[in-house]
Backbone:
């Protein structure tokens, strides 16, 4: 199968607004209003050798489609970026009661950097009033600040 072409975010929105939908865009959402959005959560600080789960509540007025995810990691002074991420991550969609992986996996499998976001192979749709739970396990005996952002768009009036 050939690789999926990636469009810049603006080009994707332009294509959708003109009725040219990618194959993964849900049939029932076509023609509905969309708007770029970012949902995030902060682990400030993520204690040394700790496992912490943070909820992200999705707005009740719209579904949210995740296109990419970013993780920014700094020392607790917030001025020094960390290069290596000895973190395991798990993500759970409470709307479907599904874990997105069968076990915690290295965070770099889920998240890119602010300079190079991790685009998900197939976007993830979250229903309105859903909670996405992100759990990080710090594998190192060093506390750190971790900020996570999911980039995508809201689909108003859509329930998957």
Residues:
């Amino acid at each position: 199968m050939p690789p999926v072409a990636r469009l810049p975010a603006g080009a994707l929105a332009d294509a959708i607004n003109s009725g040219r939908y990618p194959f993964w865009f849900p049939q029932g959402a076509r023609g509905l209003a969309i708007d770029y959005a970012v949902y995030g959560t902060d682990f400030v600080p993520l204690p040394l050798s700790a496992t912490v789960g943070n909820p992200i509540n999705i707005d009740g007025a719209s579904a949210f489609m995740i296109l990419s995810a970013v993780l920014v990691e700094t020392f607790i002074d917030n001025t020094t970026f960390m290069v290596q991420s000895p973190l395991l991550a798990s993500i759970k969609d409470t709307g479907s009661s599904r874990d997105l992986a069968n076990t915690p996996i290295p965070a770099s499998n889920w998240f890119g950097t602010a300079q190079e976001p991790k685009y998900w192979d197939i976007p993830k749709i979250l229903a309105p009033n859903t909670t996405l739970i992100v759990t990080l396990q710090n594998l190192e005996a060093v506390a750190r600040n971790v900020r996570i952002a999911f980039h995508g768009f809201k689909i108003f009036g859509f329930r998957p």
Observations:
- The chain has one domain: 33-156.
- The radius of gyration is 16 Å.
- The domain at 33-156 is CATH 2.60.120 (Jelly Rolls).
